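tool_call: predict_structure(chain=1)
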Amino acid sequence: MSNSTGYGYSPLGDNSIRLLQIEAVTNPSLNHEKTTIRCQIHHFHIAKAPKYRALSYAWGNSATRLIYLNDQRIEVRKNLWQALWHLRNNNFCVPHLATDYDLIEKDTKWIWIDALCIDQLNTVERNHQVLLMGRIYKTAAEVFAWLGCLSDLPFGSRVHTAVYQLAALTEYKDPKVWEERILRYGLHNFVSLFTLQYWQRMWILQEIGLATKITLLFDTMSADWTGFEHLQKTLKWTQHMRSDTSVFVRKETRFFWGMLIASQAFRLAFHRLDASHNTLEELLHTGQFSVCADPRDKVYAVLGLATDCQNGELEIDYSKSLFEVYLDVMNFCSKTYNGPKQSERLLRLSRLLQASFDRAAELNDGAEAWLSSSNPSAKSFTFNIRGLRTGNIAQLRAPVLSSSLLDKLSRRPPHLGMSPDEISKQLLELSKAIPITSSLSYASQVSSTSTINIRAPQALECTEPIRIYRPGKEEAIHTCLPFTMDDNRTGYAPTNAQTGDVICQFAGSEVVVVLRELQNGRYDIIGRAFVEFASSGLKTGKCGKEDEIQFKLDIVTLQQLTSATDPVLLIARRVKALDRGYTSTIIASG
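tool_result:
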């Protein structure tokens, strides 16, 4: 979402939206009139709103320009200013190269733009409007996808050629003609178009996915989305491996074909064409590398499109912390996931969410606040995960400090020591070994789960403030214990591990847990470890029913076990509380 404009908004009614009109230039002979953009904004109930367009655009850099909104001077980002100027300059229409195409009927003079139609400083309104955004884009007569001025874009001439090709593809119905035109001009032009900054935005999953009609807009030309669909079908059908083309053309085409198929634009088209893949989990996976200013929008930006979230299963609330949004998603998926791969999916989703947020420190701050809250019912919710006991720690060796690896890298030439890539790999392995303890989480053998009970926690009463300590620059980055298992595999364990501790792994996941066996088939969770070959998949051929382990994990333990690890100092802080001394270690990361 865009930043606030500073405009003095009047309150919106229930299920109401604001729509915008761009005023025409009154005196074209005056230069200042040409550069002054004036807009009028009005309120409508969404069910009674006039026919309107919606604008989809990238924010661009932070440079701003002035416009007038209901005669108030406000600042907008330069890219939005350019979009407004060119829409007005072309009377809400940009001509195709092939034919003149009027984008606006006589009775349609309204457009919806998030930066101007939502009061971004009003959290209550923002929650409500973001909830409506799926409907806003779905009911818009057309979505204008503003990709910028060609002169400002990298490889602008290639983008120009690609837009021309898309416009031409829209005209022809014969797939053989599509293929011939694509091969004539080459795929590299399309790569330049579909790797623009615009396609990396998180919000376009919903904006493109729900649009009834889409037009790609530039300053001097446009292309209908139909041309892109023709391109997509052609690449899918032929893969451009025709035998009557030269070897050079086939190799070049194969290279650019791979880039296009892997591009975010093609993933968006996939979700647009096949709604059966529009579950929350699949949309989060598609958008994991997309960008947004607020990490909470990694979730909120797809709720309007997610087929399993259309009945208020997840609320939009910008007053919540990032950790609370993570908790909401994990609780929702825990209740909806079923089947033999439930554990694998929950672990994968938890790792995906945290890596996608890319805010490890913010997540840990939220976990700290959640632990110190006085809501015991929230803490009583546990996640059921199944794993397999794959061995025991047979031998522990002297502690290893990641700072020593960095020192080795700085002191020894590459030909006399480990290469930077090898050291980076080992630092990542070390960072996966972290101590974790929680009296709310435990594990037990599957055959013994019926005899294990755990009481719901009472309100926490900490003896000292809960804090996550971040290290000083001079402190060691991370310390862990190298170990050898009874099957001769090696790895790294947290410093609280002991000889004889149990190693547990999970199908389809590289997460490794260290357990300490107690009585009656119960285990305490000691921490997370790294084991060689764990990422290649769990081999269960030699594992029997007696090796199955059932986990009951509280949300902080789950988050720590699946956290996105970095080679930084990880320091544990134990939180003491009443009722059997509830403790949970939060690991500082980032």
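agent: Confidence is low (pLDDT under 50) at residues 93-106, 449-476, 566-590. Proceeding to next step.
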